[in-house]
Amino acid sequence: MPEAANIAVISFDRFVYGNDADRQAVAKEVYDAFSSVGWVYLSDHGVSRVDEVFGLAKSFFDLPLQEKLRWRLTDAEVNQGYTADGDEANGGVDHKECYEHRRFANPLCPSSSELPGFKDTLDDFYGECLTLALNVLKCLAMAMDLGETFFDNITKKADPQLRLIHYPSIERNIIEQEGHARIIPHTDFGLCTLLFQDNVGGLEVDPFHTGDFKPAVPKQGTVLINIADLLQRLTNGRCRSTMHRVVSPTVAGDILPSRYSIPFFIHPDADVLIDPIVKEEGEVKKYEPINAGEWRIWNTKRNYTTLKEGTVTA
Ligand SMILES: O=C(O)CCC(=O)C(=O)O
Ligand SMILES: [Fe+2]
Fold first, then answer.
1. Which helix (H) or strand (E) holds 266?
2. Which terms are listed as keywords in the entry (predicted)?
3. Residue 284 belongs to what domain range?
4. pLDDT by residue (tens digit) across 70-110?
5. CA 275 to ligand 1 centroid distance, Å
6. Considering its fold, how many domains does the chain have in total?
7. Contact (CB, 8 A) for 50 and 260
8. CB within 6 Å of ligand 1 — which residues?
9. What pTM does this model have?
């Protein structure tokens, strides 16, 4: 097995329940991780029902394709619902299917009679993920002296995206063709991402963009968190949004087992201007200011093979 990526594991309950000194210490550890490899594992993160949500993801993806297509994502701006294998890829071929859940509107969600417990449990889980994400962003705000509520103030109206992903069981030689992967190399485009993964493995990160991808191995009871493009821009490159991909896990045999993961992508409000924050005398802004809402829609459309001007064309 290749050497794993060097990603710190931080116990997060010292931030939530600790005193001021504990909170400052955790904030610094988180900031150090984000400004070096761009990733961190959090243990004691306070998000419950993780196993239940993995179970519900399996129940949903086990439904026949025709049924799942009733909830097919059709609008990049709403960005909610089911994405079939082949609908999303950007410059390569992914082998995955997904379901997106939001906090304000879920028009394309199975009802409680169609999939018992699905919506209610996802709503609950979503709330816990959002709380954790905002606490993680608070760490950055503290470490950068932006004021503790900096990120709360720019995420009040935003509708972050909880995603369930299923990478189906597949022949190894399909995934290992040139240009194919379970998910091709990319950076995430929001502020930051929480990522729960099952025990199968295959996630790899390239923290320094040298092409040297290393496994971000599953660690029981933790959530992985990575910086995404808008935070890299906002922090003028201090926090690093880094390449990652999902490839074959290290298992023997020609048929790869299926894999499930649950990312939660946090975005700022659509009307926020992401203008790099400079902290030092003479520091030059490395990025142009951009509007967060336009950035999100542009990136979502770009990632889909089927979405053109907000509609499914297939
Ligand atoms: O499935 C994973 O582990 C990674 C998913 C991912 O990188 C993404 O959805 O952006
Ligand atoms: Fe990603």
1. strand 259-266
2. Iron, Metal-binding, Oxidoreductase
3. 9-307
4. 999 988 778 899 999 988 777 889 999 999 999 998 999 99
5. 27
6. 1
7. no
8. 165, 183, 188, 195, 197, 203, 244, 246, 261, 263
9. 0.94
